Amino acid sequence: MRINRMIGMAVLAGLMVGCGSGLDLGSVTGTVTYKDAPLKEGTITFHSEKGRPAVGKIVEGKITDVTTENLNDGVAIGPSRVTVQAITNAGDMYAKHKSLVPDKYGDPAKSQLKADIKSGSNDLKFDLK
Questions:
Q1: Could you list the residue range(s) of the whole structural domain that residue 39 is in?
Q2: Residue 95 domain-assigned?
Q3: In angstroms, rounded to a whole number, what is the distance separating the alpha carbons of residues 2 and 11?
Q4: Domain total in the chain
Q5: For residue 1, is it within any domain?
Q6: What average pLDDT does the structure give for the chain?
Q7: Per the domain annotation, does 16 fall within a domain?
Q8: Looking at the predicted structure, is the pLDDT value of residue 13 above 90?
């Protein structure tokens, strides 16, 4: 019985340590265009040098809901590599998919997109070619 209590306490302590990253986050909004037109839909990921990545949506060219841990909490302050992915039929896992932007934008090592996130609000613009 004592072993079970010790295991339970260890699991609870581990969960408490895992709650909250302690990172300072900056909110992010902005736009993503491809060939000078707003990107209809997609996802944008900020690969921070500090901690976990943040993922957001692209809706009619606007960056929304950028989330590290909690909905729309933002991106870790500091430099981030940025990737963008957009495919046809994104809502249908059985449909045939085609990338709407060049594949390099989905690879953090090749996208060449970067952002330096500051405390507070960040209004970013990405123009994909």
A1: 24-128
A2: yes
A3: 14
A4: 1
A5: no
A6: 87
A7: no
A8: no
Per-residue CA distances from 38 to 52, 58, 107, 114 (Å)? 27, 9, 21, 19
H runs (alpha helix) in 1-129: 2-18
Tell me what the mean pLDDT of segment 55-80 comes to: 97
Contact 75, 26 (CB under 8 A): yes
CB 126 within 8 A of CB 84: yes
Give yes or no for a contact between 126 and 91, defined as CB atoms under 8 angstroms apart.
Answer: no
Distance CA 109, CA 122 (A): 23
Q: Residue 102 sits in a domain of what CATH number?
A: 2.60.40
Angle at 112 (CA atoms; ends 107, 117), nearest 5 degrees: 100
More confident residue, 7 or 46: 46
CA dist 105 and 16 (Å) reads: 36
Tokens 């809706």, located at residue: 59
Q: Does residue 11 fall inside a structural domain?
A: no
Using only C-alpha atoms, the chain has a radius of gyration, in whole angstroms, of 18
Q: Backbone phi, then psi, for 61, in 5-degree steps?
A: 85, -5
Please compute the mean of the pLDDT values over residues 110-129 and round it to a whole number.
Answer: 97
